[in-house]
C-alpha cells in the first residue's frame, strides 16, 4: 500500500515457492536415506544425495527461480540463515525510517506547488500499482530468480527517491511515488517469500510480525528526522539522503543470496546450463515466457482502469465546474469502460487470465479479500489528512503530529506479534475476527465525536491504540484464512490476490478522502472566513505552510479549524459505514485449524 498501514498490508502478498505434498514422497525418502547417507560439508551444512537428487529431478519441471531457491535451501547453514534474517531486519529498519520521513515530507512537497489538497491523490495510483504489481513480480522471481527480483525493486526505489528529490511539479512527484511504492512493496514481497521458504507454517506469522518491529522504533525517529530536514535543510535533501543509504543497506540481503548461490554451484547442488541464445534472442525468449505466464494486457487494463476512474475524485475540487467538468466526467466514464473491458478480456479473450477467479470459489478467500478491502476503504477515507489536521487544529509540530499518527504503527506491529503467538497456540483464528470487528467499528465511530477542536489529545491516542490492535488482528486473520483455504500450489497467488483487492480498496478510500477534503474544506473556509479575507480562500486551502502561518486565535485560523473539523467528521462517518459489511465477511470465514496444513520439508525457522 502506498501509505498508512503500509508495512503490514504489503506483507500480505506472496508467501513463498510452491509447497510440495509430503505424503507422496515418504517412501522415496526412506529409500534414499538408506542408500545415500548424509554428509556434512566443511561449513556444517547437512547435505545428502537425497537432497541433490531431489533438486535435480525437480528442476526441469520447475521455473528457474523456484529451482534455484530450493537448491540454495539444501546447503543453507544456521549461521547464514541468521545473517539473512539480520539483513532483513536492517533493511526493514531503513525502509521504515524513510517511509516515516516520507509521510512527514509529503504535505510540504505538494504545498510547495500550492496543491496541499492533492495529498491523497499522490497515493491513489501508487496504491493500485503497488498492490497489483505483486502478481507480475511473483511470476518474474519464479522465472528469473529471487535475487534479480529484489534488485529490480531496489533500483525502482532508488530511482523514485532521486525523482522526488529533483521534482519540479506535482506530476513528477506522483510518478515518483508510483515507482517508490512499487519498489518498496516489492522488497517486502521478496523478503516475505524468503521467510516462507525457511519457516514453518505455524511460525510464519510470528517471523513476519518480527520484521515489523523496526517500524515501532522509527515511529518516533522518523517524524523527528523529517522535522530536522524541514527545519535545517530541505525535503529534497531528505529524499536525496535515502537515495544514497538505501542501496548500500539493501545490497547486504542481495549479497547473502549471491554468496549462497555461488556456494551451491561449487557443491554441484545448483547446475546451470549455458544458453546458446544471443542477447536479442534471450530478450525475446523471456518476454514470451513472461507473457505466457501472465496476461500483461490484463495487468495494464486493471491498473489503468482503476487509476483513471479514481483520480477524478481528488481532482474535481481543483476544477471550476467541479464534478460537472468535462475532464472529470470523461475520466470517470473512460475509467469505467476500461474496467469493463478488463472483465470482458479476462472472461472471453485472455489466453491466461491475470485475475485468479478460480480461487474466489472458496468462501474464506472471498471473506478475507473483502474484509481487507472494506477495512482499507474505511482506514484511508479518514487517515490521509490526519497529520495536517493535528498541526492546524491542535498547533502541534511536525514531530509531535507524527508521533500521534504513528501510534498506529507502534501498537499494530507490537500487537501483531503477540496475537501471532495466540493464533499459533489456539490453532484457530476466527475467534480473533469476532472480537476485533466490533472493536474496530466502535473505535472508528468514537472518532466522529472525539476528532473535534478542543478535544483532549489523550482521547485521540486511546482510540488509536484500540483501533490499531483490532486492525492488526484482522490483518493477520486475512493472511491465515488465505493460506489455510487454498491448495499448496496456490498459496502465493492467493496472497497476491488478497493484495490486489486490498490495494483497490485502499485506493478507493484515498479517492473518497481526497474528494471529500477537496469539496468540503474550501467551501467551509469560504463560509467561515471573514469578508476581508475572502480573496485568500484558495491560497489558504492550497498550502500547509500558509495555514500554519495564520496566527493562533485569529479569525482566519479559527475559520480554517472549523473547516478541517467539518471535513474530518464527514470522512469518519463514511469510514464507519464502510466497516458495516465486514460483519458479513467475518461470518463467512471458516473456523479452520492451521495444523490441518502439512509442512514442507527443509524448513528451519
TrEMBL record:
Lipid bilayer topology: Multi-pass membrane protein
InterPro entries in alphabetical order: MFS, MFS_trans_sf
Biased composition (Basic and acidic residues): 34-44
Primary localization: membrane
Domain of life: Eukaryota
Listed GO MF terms: transmembrane transporter activity
Chain positions covered by the region annotation Disordered: 34-61
Biased composition (Polar residues): 45-54
Keywords (A to Z) from UniProt: Membrane, Transmembrane, Transmembrane helix
GO cellular component: plasma membrane
Pfam families: MFS_1
Membrane-spanning ranges: 80-97, 149-166, 205-225, 237-261, 294-317, 323-345, 365-382, 402-423, 430-450, 456-477, 489-508, 570-589
Subcellular location: Membrane
Protein name: Siderophore iron transporter mirB
Lineage: Eukaryota, Fungi, Dikarya, Ascomycota, Pezizomycotina
Amino acid at each position: 500500500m502506498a501509505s498508512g498501514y503500509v508495512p503490514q498490508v504489503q506483507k500480505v502478498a506472496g508467501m513463498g515457492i510452491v509447497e510440495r505434498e509430503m505424503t507422496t514422497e515418504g517412501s522415496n525418502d526412506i529409500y534414499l536415506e538408506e542408500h545415500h547417507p548424509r554428509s556434512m560439508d566443511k561449513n556444517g551444512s547437512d547435505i545428502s544425495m537425497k537432497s541433490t537428487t531431489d533438486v535435480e529431478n525437480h528442476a526441469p519441471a520447475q521455473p528457474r527461480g523456484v529451482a534455484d531457491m530450493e537448491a540454495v535451501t539444501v546447503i543453507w547453514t544456521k549461521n547464514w540463515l541468521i545473517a539473512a534474517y539480520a539483513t532483513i531486519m536492517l533493511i526493514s529498519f531503513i525502509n521504515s525510517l524513510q517511509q516515516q520521513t516520507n509521510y512527514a515530507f509529503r504535505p510540504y512537497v505538494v504545498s510547495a506547488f500550492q496543491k496541499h489538497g492533492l495529498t491523497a491523490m499522490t497515493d491513489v495510483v501508487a496504491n493500485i500499482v503497488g498492490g497489483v504489481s505483486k502478481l507480475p513480480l511473483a511470476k518474474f522471481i519464479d522465472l528469473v530468480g529471487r535475487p534479480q527480483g529484489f534488485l529490480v525493486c531496489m533500483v525502482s526505489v532508488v530511482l523514485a527517491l532521486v525523482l522526488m528529490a529533483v521534482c519540479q511539479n506535482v506530476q513528477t512527484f506522483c510518478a515518483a511515488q508510483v515507482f517508490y511504492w512499487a519498489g518498496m512493496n516489492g522488497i517486502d514481497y521478496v523478503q516475505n517469500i524468503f521467510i516462507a521458504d525457511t519457516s514453518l507454517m505455524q511460525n510464519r506469522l510470528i517471523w513476519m510480525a518480527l520484521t515489523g518491529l523496526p517500524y515501532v522504533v522509527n515511529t518516533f525517529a522518523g517524524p523527528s528526522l523529517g522535522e530536522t530536514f524541514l527545519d535545517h535543510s530541505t525535503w529534497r535533501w531528505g529524499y536525496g539522503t535515502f537515495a544514497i543509504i538505501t542501496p548500500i543497506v539493501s545490497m547486504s540481503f542481495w549479497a547473502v543470496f549471491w554468496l549462497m548461490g555461488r556456494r551451491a554451484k561449487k557443491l554441484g547442488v545448483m547446475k546451470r546450463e549455458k544458453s546458446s541464445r544471443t542477447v536479442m534472442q534471450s530478450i525475446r525468449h523471456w518476454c514470451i515466457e513472461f507473457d505466457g505466464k501472465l496476461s500483461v494486457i490484463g495487468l495494464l487494463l486493471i491498473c489503468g482502469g482503476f487509476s483513471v476512474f479514481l483520480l477524478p475524485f481528488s481532482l474535481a475540487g481543483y476544477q471550476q465546474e467541479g464534478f460537472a467538468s468535462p475532464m472529470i466526467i470523461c475520466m470517470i466514464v473512460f475509467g469505467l469502460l476500461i474496467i469493463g473491458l478488463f472483465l470482458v478480456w479476462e472472461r472471453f479473450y485472455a489466453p491466461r487470465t491475470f485475475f485468479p477467479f478460480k480461487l474466489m470459489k472458496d468462501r474464506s478467500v472471498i471473506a478475507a479479500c473483502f474484509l481487507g478491502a472494506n477495512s482499507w476503504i474505511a482506514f484511508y477515507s479518514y487517515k490521509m489528512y490526519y497529520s495536517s489536521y493535528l498541526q492546524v487544529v491542535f498547533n502541534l509540530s511536525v514531530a509531535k503530529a507524527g508521533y500521534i499518527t504513528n501510534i498506529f504503527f507502534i501498537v499494530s506491529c507490537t500487537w501483531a506479534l503477540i496475537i501471532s503467538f495466540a493464533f499459533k497456540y489456539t490453532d484457530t483464528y476466527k475467534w480473533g475476527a469476532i472480537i476485533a470487528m466490533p472493536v474496530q467499528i466502535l473505535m472508528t465511530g468514537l472518532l466522529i465525536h472525539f476528532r473535534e477542536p478542543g478535544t483532549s489529545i489523550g482521547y485521540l491516542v486511546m482510540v488509536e491504540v484500540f483501533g490499531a490492535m483490532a486492525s492488526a488482528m484482522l490483518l493477520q486473520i486475512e493472511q491465515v484464512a488465505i493460506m489455510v483455504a487454498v491448495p499448496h500450489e496456490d498459496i502465493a497467488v492467493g496472497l497476491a490476490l488478497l493484495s490486489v483487492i486490498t490495494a483497490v480498496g485502499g485506493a478507493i478510500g484515498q479517492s473518497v478522502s481526497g474528494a471529500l477534503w477537496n469539496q468540503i474544506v474550501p467551501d467551509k473556509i469560504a463560509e467561515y472566513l471573514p469578508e476581508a479575507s475572502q480573496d485568500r480562500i484558495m491560497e489558504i486551502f492550497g498550502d500547509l505552510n500558509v495555514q500554519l502561518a495564520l496566527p493562533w486565535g485569529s479569525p482566519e485560523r479559527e475559520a480554517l479549524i472549523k473547516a478541517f473539523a467539518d471535513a474530518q467528521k464527514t470522512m469518519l462517518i463514511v469510514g464507519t459505514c464502510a466497516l458495516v459489511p465486514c460483519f458479513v465477511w467475518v461470518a463467512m470465514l471458516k473456523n479452520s485449524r492451521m495444523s490441518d496444513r502439512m509442512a514442507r520439508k527443509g524448513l528451519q525457522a
